[in-house]
Amino acid sequence: MEKVAFLYATFPRPTETFVRRELRAFDELGFHPIAYSLWGGEGNWEKRKIILFPKFRLLQLFYWLPYWGFLKPREFREVLTFLWNRPCPNLQNFNETFLGLGFALVEALAFRKKKYDLIHGVWATMPATAAFALHRLTGIPYSMDSHAYDLFRKGGDWLLELKLRYTAFVRTSSESSVRRLESLGVEGDKIQLIRRGLESWTKRSSFEVSPGNEPLRMLSVGRLVPKKGYFHTLRIAEILVRNRISFEWKIIGSGILEKQLKEEIKRKGLENWVHLLGFRMEEEVRETCLQSDVLVFTGIIDECGDRDGIPNIVPEAMETGCLILSSQVAGASEAFIDEVSGFSLNPKNPHGWVEILSDFKNNPSNYLSIRKNAIKHAREHFDVRKTVRKLYSSIQRVPDADG
To answer: What is the pTM of this model?
Structure first.
């Protein structure tokens, strides 16, 4: 299968590091999918042409809607009936759904003329909607990625179940997401559990903890949104201060909770210990991991049902030699073996986290093997060259349109 289109919502996005790593790894394999960015992005990325969809072309729907409605009435009726009988999760998903459908209606004949063997939606939202609709209009098979946000937030994407019905396969990256897909009726042989990968290895200069009796160097990374559980993070910090444990906690990320978190840090009197650094590029995050002793991730299931599968930062920090303390909620702790290469903890019980952090600072040698096991585990299970070969193998097994 040589001619494959990869559909992205916006490419490249600074926060979506794993999709860029996978494209580079595909190039190393000699497989060069044609990348489409449906909503903005850059026309060129690392000498690769990205096909940007001109949004003004949606005006052509005045022609293409009746054209395809006449040719494919059953398909139109199926989609409209499905949408009518299910509540839309949110306004963003409403917009993404119709943008994905609009892209497909406008581009369907062009995709047919280009004779693609497969269309792959990199996210289960807008890209997979477009891939699904292109399949129903042209017969070109499609596959899709589906991760925690697509599956859990307010019950998942609006068209999710319909897209899962027709997809050749669905790739996901955590066992918790696999279980969700199974509960939606996806057959086991359609589900491909393929981790998100790392593309380069680091070298930590020292495993010394708090050198020169400095504060314990702690790190959290992720968007400042409810599912990351940052208010639990601050509760842990508050108890560490009360117990007179010296630490410096850096939080990298930006998001809607920034103002509330700043106010909570001030209210708890944590300004000298907890620092919100805002967004940082991938290279800066990696360097900060190498300079940190421990990564803390306190993820939760938020009020909308949203949660993380395996956050990218967990295997990234494992590979740099940080001690990993991660929430046992959803899929984050799947990245390691509990008490062998990290610790899986309840974010609602801050004292369990404090106990380990206090012992780690006072007896760091007891945790050296765990940190080294984390490095080994990350390199064995999250090597992007291995994960991409699995995805490439799944793509190659998809029958062509005639098949």
So the answer is: 0.92
